Amino acid sequence: MEQARPDATSCAAMLELLAVPGIPLVEAGDDLAALLEAALGRAHLELRDGDVVVVASKVVSRSEGRFFDLARVSPSARAVEIARQTAKDPHMVELILRETERVSRAAPNVLIVRHRLGFVSANAGIDCSNAVPANAPPESGPWALLLPEDPDASAERIRAKLHESFSAAIGVVISDSFGRPFRFGTVGAAIGVAGIPALWDRRGEKDLFGRTLEATITALADQVAAAADLVAGQAAEGRAAVIVRGLSFPVGEHSARELLRPADQDLYL
Amino acid sequence: MEQARPDATSCAAMLELLAVPGIPLVEAGDDLAALLEAALGRAHLELRDGDVVVVASKVVSRSEGRFFDLARVSPSARAVEIARQTAKDPHMVELILRETERVSRAAPNVLIVRHRLGFVSANAGIDCSNAVPANAPPESGPWALLLPEDPDASAERIRAKLHESFSAAIGVVISDSFGRPFRFGTVGAAIGVAGIPALWDRRGEKDLFGRTLEATITALADQVAAAADLVAGQAAEGRAAVIVRGLSFPVGEHSARELLRPADQDLYL
After folding, report:
1. Are A247 and A15 in contact (CB under 8 A)?
2. DSSP secondary structure letter of residue A50
3. Residue A14: which of B35, B37, B11, B20 has the closest Cα?
4. B218 lies within 8 A of chain A by CB
5. Cα separation of A167 and A244, whole Å?
6. Where do the DSSP E strands lie in B6-94?
7. Given a cut of 60, is residue A78 above it in pLDDT?
8. A183: contact with B, CB 8 A cutoff
9. Predicted pLDDT of residue B202
């Protein structure tokens, strides 16, 4: 499993996914990279070249203090109207709209928006699970947790620190769970990326008959996030981070924005 | 890594993905399960309870002889019209329409349809890579390969045979590459499923604070397909099958149709 620093992304013949055990409940102001480093140390896990550390957006949000007490959020007239259409809590809708560039679809129990970060997702990724801060007063809440302020930057902070600690050329993906328009069930998707290419462009390659491959840009970072979700879950196990080991990719500067289809190419606007 | 036959699907703390080496180029009429079994034997790989074998739709299609010589396909008037709208080959559009229940979006270089199998995908999953049959006459083609006739049934045939050979409670997923409306890049998705639940319903579980989890039906089979795609690629490596090892799920009767949002719940029709 020795990794070179290859020039081109390539397929792995074998891949391992390892949950990072023993990450404590993350609170506002915690240095997440330091918590990860300590947990890796306690588990005797050393990062290697080519490893990708997939971190759940929820723990990044908690470290950034993105908690909101819904009772203290004042809904605008527009939030009240959309709450009526969707049968959702107006305080929650207000928070969603503050994170929203454009509403994509509103229907009973459904509010899908183009997030200020550019992706399309339900409820702007705002969640009420595992959303209570350590210092929550007894009568406060319910609490909601917004997505990280700038997930690419969060990923890069973690990458830089772990790169320094382990002297390894690694990637970091901040993952969140996304629904899909045509399919049931959520899948892990990349909302922040550092080190690893978000897209893997294979258009130059040939098939077994020497014919150039079609449609061969794969969403590498999304597939890494989906794979990690098989290991991480998102609940009481509290598995906040997963190592994906065995990929080969050229480490470089990348962004989850590489994955975003701009509105003018969106046929489902 | 011993697997019980658990009552409930659960997270893996570690997952391994292994490409099955040495599967020959599959041709029409080949017994794919027998080819897989032989390749596993040569590689000294034994399937275990809980393993999921992910098979690329392309090799299933080849084994089922789903080849079409585009030059011998007569385009209908409707195919000619849509070919004009999309700047696609009318012969190819004709094949796509034969597999189509309803056109979802047609635009220059884009033809997205609801496939007769119920999922929404570009070009009805028809591909011209690795699409040449062994007995292709020299002046024939170009060739196109349609998706398997009934991918759930194909998955079940493979599952039954491998279950018998290895006495292991396994799952089988037939995977294809799908684009997404809002995001660039393709991801692996399940078009056929046997043994493993396509969806993993976690709504009964609690978060770290005892609050019931929201939005917690994950697309297990799609995430398995996406993970396998990291290993398999789809090109000259010819990696036709990947073992996903380390999941826990109750083996039962399932279908990729579990993943399909019906048209009446589709806000992006």
Report:
1. yes
2. T
3. B20
4. yes
5. 17
6. 14-19, 52-56, 67-69
7. yes
8. yes
9. 75
Calpha distance B180→B203 (Å, rounded): 26
> Could you read off the pLDDT of B9-53 as tens digits, one per residue?
554 568 999 999 889 999 999 999 999 999 999 999 999 999 999
CA distance B30 to chain A (A): 18
What whole-number distance in Å separates Cα of residue A82 and Cα of residue A111?
9
**What share of chain B has pLDDT > 90, as a percent?**
74
The residue-averaged pLDDT of A117-146 equals 91
**Closest residue on chain A to B115 (Cα):** A182
Q: pTM for this one?
A: 0.93
- Cβ pair B210, B223 in contact under 8 A: no
For the ranges A85-99, A192-206, B56-70, the lowest mean pLDDT is seen at A192-206
Q: Which two tokens stand for residue B12?
A: 């893996």
* HSE-CB of B66 using CA atoms within 13 angstroms: 24
Spell out the alpha helix ranges (H) of B43-76.
57-63
* φ/ψ of residue A259, rounded to 5: -85, -10
DSSP state of A21: T
Side-chain-facing half-sphere of B230: CA atoms under 13 Å? 31
Q: How far is B76 from chain A (nearest CA, A)?
A: 25
CB contact under 8 A, B15 and A11: no
A73 in Cβ contact with A142 (< 8 Å): no
Q: Which residues of A touch B183 (CB under 8 A)?
A: 119, 189, 219, 222, 259-261
Res. A6: pLDDT tops 50 = no
- Closest to A184 (Cβ–Cβ): which among B17, B185, B261? B261
The whole-number average pLDDT for the span A215-235 is 85
CA B222 to chain centre: 9
